[in-house]
Amino acid sequence: MTSAERPPHPLRRVDVLGVGVSAVSLPQAVARIGDWARTKERTYVCVTGVHGVMEARRDPELRRIHNEAGLTTPDGMPMVWAGRRAGAAWMTRVYGPDLMLAVLKQAAAEGWSSYFYGGAPGTPELLARRLSTRFAGLRVAGAWSPPFRSPTPAEDAADVQRINATRPDFVWVGLSTPKQERWMAAHRDALDAPVLLGVGAAFDFHAGLLSQAPHWVQRSGLEWAFRLAHEPRRLAPRYLRNNPAFVAAIIRNPPRLLP
Predict the structure, then answer these.
(1) For residue 154, how many C-alpha atoms fall within 13 Å in the half-sphere facing its CB?
(2) Please, which residues have CB within 8 angstroms of residue 86's CB and are 6 or more apart in sequence?
(3) What are the domain boundaries of the chain?
(4) In what order do the strands lie in the sheet with 256-257?
(5) For a designed S-S bond to 174, which of 131, 141, 203, 241 qualifies (C-beta 3.0 to 4.6 A apart)?
(6) pLDDT tens-place string over residues 90-126
């Protein structure tokens, strides 16, 4: 990495339609998360792309949640292009599934433990088993699939107690956007774990339940088309609504690098 490409310290953000997207690379995001694990600083991490930005643009509370996150990483190539257009030449994609693997690799080396919260019944347990096979020495504190509906207050309290009892360093949250961002913000003070990370579809990808797009598709910014072909019923309304609206909005409101 050249001096011109090296990111500043502390981390800066790029204003993308009101959402402060962190101007980071994957190695820097992993390093910052590792710092939080060591110091026990309590925060949460959002990974956001066009869908997250557009949902936050419509919802001031969701926008606040993104902007108060310790990191809001550029999950999609449009976020990277927006950042580079604003002057953050060092910015690269920090894709949720890649971030998860990179952090867990370090966690296995450092002895940090992880709790997996989210996904359909059986998914977090399957995910934990596959990741334990992939990373020798990975410490799994626990895994839990909450009900798809909103939990009752008693169920929610039980979830918090269950997670805290295992004393994890990381809580990985796979509830999809914007549900996972709201959950992290609402539970940040109640959970003792230093870092909460909302990684959405990474649960299904790394559990082997969904196929990831080839790397060349990811780099081209066409991953949405690959995912749409695989999950048309669920994703068509999202993409048909958000993608054209994002392009129109970004033309009217160019991204800017924040101080």
Answers:
(1) 0
(2) 14, 15, 254, 255, 256, 257
(3) 13-257
(4) 19-22, 13-16, 256-257
(5) 203
(6) 999 999 999 999 999 999 999 999 999 999 999 999 9
